[in-house]
Amino acid sequence: MRRSGRGMRSLWLVGALLTAGGCSKKDEPAPERTVAPTPTPPLGTLPREGEAEARPPVHVASGSVLPQAPTPTPPGPEESAPAAEPDSPAWTSSPTEVKRREQTQATLVSVRTGPHEDYDRVVFQFEGAELPGYQVAYAKTPAVQCGSGDPVKVEGQGPLEVRFIPARAHTSEGKATVSDLTLKPALPMVRELVRTCDFEAEVTWLLGTARPTSYRVLELKGPSRIVVDVKH
Question: Facing residues of 84 across strands?
Answer without folding.
Answer: none
